[in-house]
C-alpha cells in the first residue's frame, strides 16, 4: 500500500494534463516521461545540453530533445523510454509543459520519483479509462507475487516473461535475483521507463509479438529459459496461418486461439517450470483447447488454481493459474486442483473488486502439495476419464462436495441422459418484427422459471418459421447459460403454444425410464445435492454456462416408486402454498390501493 504523500505525486503531475485532449493512458505515460527526464538530469545521467532547464520549452523543442535521448548510450538500451508522437507533444501547450516540468522538479527534489513512483503509474493504468490499453494487463500486487512464487525463481536463473506490457512480472522476477527477458506486441515507452526508474536491466523487446515474431532466438532455434511466467492477452484471435507458417515447430493445433498458441509458445521456450495465467475457457473448451490440455496432463501439469471473479482490475472474468513442471513430465501422475475462489482465500471490497488475501496460503498449498478443503490431488487417469476437463470446481474438495459424493456413493445412481431426452430450443424472433413469420408462441425464459410451483404464463411473444420443439405438459426446463442451474416445470394444461428461450434446455422424460413422473427430477435438481452437482459442472469465463456433454453425465439418484409418489405429493403442496401466497399478495395490493386513489385511474398508486 502506498502512503498518502507518494500516492499524490502522480496526481499532481496529471493535473495540468486534465484539460488536454490526451487520453488517460497518454496522460500517464507522458507525465512519466517528463518526470523521468527531470530525474535523469538531476542524477547527472544525461548531458547538460539535453537537460530541462528553468526557462519555458516549446513542444517542438521537447520533441527534439526526446529524439536525441532515444539514441543516448548512457540509457543502456532504454532510449525508447522517450519515444513520443509529435502530435501528442503538440497537443500540450507550452504553459502546460511549464507547469508539468515545475511539478516534476519539485517531486524529484523531494525524492518522490523512482521505483515507488512506478507503483503509482501501474495503479493509474489499471484503474479508470486507462485499462483499455496497457491497463488491461496490469495485475494487483498479490497476484503478481503468487505467480512469481509459483515459479520458484532462484538467483541467477534466466526467466522469460512474454506479454508483460507493464513489466510487473519482469520486475518481480528481477527482484528475486533472476536475469529477465521479456517481449510484448505493443510498442510503448512504458517498459523502458520502468527499467530506468527501477534501475533494472531487464531485457526488453517491445513491439514484437512473441507468437508471430519471437525475438529471443539462437540462430534457427528458439532460446530456452529456465523458467517462464506469463499472462498472455485474452480473447485475441490470430490468423490460421500463424500455426501453418511457424518456423520453430511450436504449434500442434491449427487454431486462431491466442490462449492456445501462447501456451504452446511458452512451453517451447521453457526448460524447467512454466506458470501461465489464463482464462477459464482454456480449461474446458473443445477442439484445440482440449488437445492442449491432453498434452499438459501427460506432460508435466503440476497444479491448477482457480481464481475468484474480479481478481483483475476492471473485469469480472474468472482466471486460472496453471503450473507446469517440465522436469517431471514423465513421472508426474497427479494434478493438484486448488479452489482459490473459496471465501478463505479472498475478500470483496463492496465495489466489485476482489483481493486475493490468501495468496500465501495458495502458494504454500501448491509448493507443499497439501490436500484438504478446497485442495485435492487428482490422478491423470481420472482427468482423462473426464475428457481432460480442468475446471477446478469439478475436482477441488470441500465439505459440501464431500457430502454430495458420499450421498451419491450410498445410493443407486444413473446419468441424467438415461432419464430424459435433451431438446434444444428453436431460434425465435420477437413478435411484431419487420419480417413476419407464420407461427406465434409464448417464450419461456430464465426469469420465468419460478422457485416453487409450475411455470406461470410467460409474457414474451415470439414468431417462428415453423413450430418445432414446442413445450409439452410436464417438460422440465433448465437454464444452461447465465443464471445456470435454474429449473422449472411446464404445467399439465397449456392454453397456448409455449417454446423455450435460448438460454434453456428442455428435459423430456424418456419412455420406459426409471422416472415415471418428472416432479421428482425437478425437486432433485432444486435440492442441495442437485444444486451442488450443477455448480460443479458449470464453466465459462464472463458468462457461466453448462455444456450439454457435461449435463448428460450428471448423476441422479434413482428414486423408488414410493419416493416418486411422495415427491409428486410434496410438489402439489408447494403449488397450493404458492397460490395462497399470491392470493395474499393480491389482498395486500387491494387494501393498499384503497387509500388516496387517483380519480379515473383504477389501482393507481398501489404499493
Notes on the structure:
With 607 residues, the protein is of the alpha/beta class. It contains 22 helices and 25 strands. The chain starts with a helix and ends in a 14-residue tail after the last helix. The N terminus is likely disordered.
Distance between the termini: 48 Å
Please give the radius of gyration in angstroms: 30 Å
**Beta-strand content bin:** 15-25%
> Given the structure, what is the number of helices?
22
Helix content: 25-40%
Shape type: globular
Largest sheet: 9 strands, mixed
Low-pLDDT ranges: 1-6
| Structure summary, number of beta strands | 25
Set down the secondary structure blueprint.
Layout: H1 4-7, H2 9-14, H3 24-42, H4 59-70, H5 86-90, H6 94-109, H7 115-126, H8 141-151, E1 158-160, H9 168-175, E2 179-184, H10 190-198, E3 203-206, E4 217-218, E5 221-222, E6 225-230, H11 241-244, H12 258-268, E7 270-279, H13 281-284, H14 288-297, E8 301-306, E9 319-325, E10 334-339, E11 347-348, E12 354-355, H15 359-368, E13 375-379, H16 380-385, H17 392-395, H18 399-409, E14 413-415, E15 420-423, E16 429-430, E17 439-444, E18 460-464, E19 476-479, E20 487-489, E21 498-500, E22 504-509, H19 519-526, H20 528-537, E23 538-539, E24 545-546, H21 548-552, E25 555-557, H22 561-593
Parallel strand pairs: 1-2, 1-6, 2-3, 6-7, 8-10, 17-21
Antiparallel strand pairs: 4-5, 7-9, 8-9, 10-13, 11-12, 14-25, 15-22, 16-18, 17-18, 19-20, 19-22, 23-24
Helix pairs in contact: 3-6, 3-10, 8-9, 8-15, 18-20, 19-20
Amino acid at each position: 500500500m502506498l502512503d498518502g504523500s507518494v500516492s499524490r505525486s502522480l496526481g499532481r503531475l496529471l493535473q495540468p494534463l486534465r484539460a488536454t485532449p490526451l487520453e488517460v493512458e497518454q496522460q500517464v505515460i507522458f507525465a512519466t516521461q517528463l518526470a523521468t527526464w527531470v530525474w535523469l538530469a538531476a542524477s547527472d545521467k544525461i548531458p547538460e545540453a539535453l537537460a530541462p532547464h528553468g526557462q519555458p520549452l516549446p513542444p517542438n523543442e521537447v520533441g527534439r530533445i526526446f529524439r536525441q535521448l532515444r539514441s543516448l548510450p548512457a540509457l543502456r538500451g532504454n532510449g525508447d523510454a522517450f519515444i513520443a508522437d509529435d502530435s501528442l507533444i503538440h497537443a500540450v501547450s507550452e504553459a502546460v509543459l511549464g507547469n508539468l516540468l515545475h511539478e516534476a522538479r519539485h517531486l524529484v527534489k523531494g525524492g518522490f520519483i523512482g521505483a515507488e513512483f512506478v507503483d503509482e503509474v501501474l495503479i493509474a493504468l489499471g484503474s479508470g479509462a486507462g485499462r483499455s490499453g496497457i491497463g488491461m494487463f496490469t495485475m494487483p500486487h498479490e497476484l503478481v507475487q503468487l505467480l512469481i512464487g509459483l515459479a520458484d525463481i532462484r538467483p541467477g536463473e534466466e526467466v522469460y516473461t512474454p506479454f508483460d506490457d507493464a513489466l510487473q512480472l519482469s520486475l518481480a522476477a528481477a527482484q528475486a535475483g533472476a536475469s529477465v527477458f521479456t517481449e510484448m506486441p505493443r510498442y510503448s515507452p512504458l517498459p523502458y521507463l520502468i527499467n530506468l526508474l527501477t534501475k533494472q536491466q531487464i531485457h526488453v523487446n517491445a513491439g514484437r509479438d512473441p507468437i508471430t515474431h519471437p525475438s529471443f532466438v539462437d540462430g534457427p532455434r528458439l532460446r530456452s529459459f529456465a523458467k517462464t511466467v506469463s499472462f498472455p492477452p485474452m480473447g485475441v484471435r490470430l490468423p490460421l496461418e500463424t500455426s501453418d507458417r511457424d518456423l520453430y515447430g511450436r504449434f500442434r493445433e491449427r487454431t486462431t486461439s491466442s490462449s492456445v498458441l501462447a501456451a504452446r509458445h511458452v512451453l517451447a521456450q521453457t526448460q524447467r517450470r512454466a506458470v501461465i495465467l489464463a482464462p477459464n475457457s482454456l480449461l474446458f473448451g473443445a477442439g484445440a483447447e482440449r488437445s492442449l490440455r491432453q498434452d499438459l496432463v501427460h506432460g508435466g501439469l503440476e497444479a491448477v488454481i482457480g481464481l475468484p471473479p474480479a481478481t483483475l482490475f476492471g473485469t469480472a472474468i474468472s482466471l486460472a493459474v496453471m503450473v507446469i513442471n517440465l522436469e517431471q513430465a514423465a513421472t508426474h501422475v497427479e494434478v493438484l486442483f486448488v479452489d482459490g475462489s473459496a471465501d478463505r482465500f479472498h475478500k470483496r471490497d463492496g465495489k466489485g473488486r476482489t483481493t486475493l488475501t490468501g495468496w500465501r496460503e495458495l502458494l504454500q498449498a501448491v509448493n507443499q502439495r497439501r490436500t484438504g478443503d478446497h485442495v485435492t490431488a487428482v490422478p491423470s487417469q481420472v482427468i482423462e476419464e473426464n475428457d481432460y476437463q480442468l475446471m477446478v470446481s469439478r475436482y477441488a474438495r470441500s465439505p459440501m462436495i464431500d457430502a454430495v459424493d458420499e450421498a451419491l456413493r450410498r445410493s443407486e445412481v444413473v446419468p441424467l441422459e438415461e432419464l430424459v431426452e435433451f431438446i434444444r430450443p428453436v431460434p425465435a424472433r420477437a413478435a411484431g418484427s419487420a419480417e413476419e413469420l407464420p407461427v406465434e408462441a409464448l417464450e419461456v425464459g430464465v426469469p420465468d422459471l419460478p422457485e416453487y410451483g409450475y411455470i406461470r404464463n410467460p409474457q414474451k411473444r415470439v414468431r417462428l418459421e415453423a413450430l418445432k420443439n414446442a413445450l409439452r405438459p410436464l417438460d422440465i426446463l433448465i437454464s444452461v447459460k447465465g443464471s445456470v442451474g435454474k429449473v422449472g416445470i411446464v404445467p399439465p394444461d397449456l392454453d397456448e403454444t409455449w417454446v423455450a428461450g435460448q438460454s434453456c434446455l428442455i428435459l423430456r422424460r424418456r419412455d420406459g425410464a426409471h422416472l415415471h413422473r418428472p416432479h421428482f427430477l425437478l425437486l432433485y435438481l432444486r435440492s442441495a445435492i442437485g444444486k451442488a452437482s450443477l455448480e460443479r459442472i458449470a464453466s465459462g469465463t464472463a458468462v457461466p454456462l453448462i455444456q450439454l456433454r457435461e449435463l448428460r453425465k450428471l448423476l441422479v439418484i434413482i428414486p423408488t416408486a414410493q419416493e416418486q409418489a411422495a415427491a409428486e405429493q410434496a410438489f402439489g403442496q408447494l403449488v397450493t402454498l404458492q397460490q395462497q401466497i399470491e392470493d395474499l399478495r393480491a389482498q395486500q395490493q387491494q387494501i393498499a390501493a384503497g387509500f388516496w386513489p387517483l380519480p379515473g385511474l383504477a389501482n393507481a398508486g398501489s404499493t
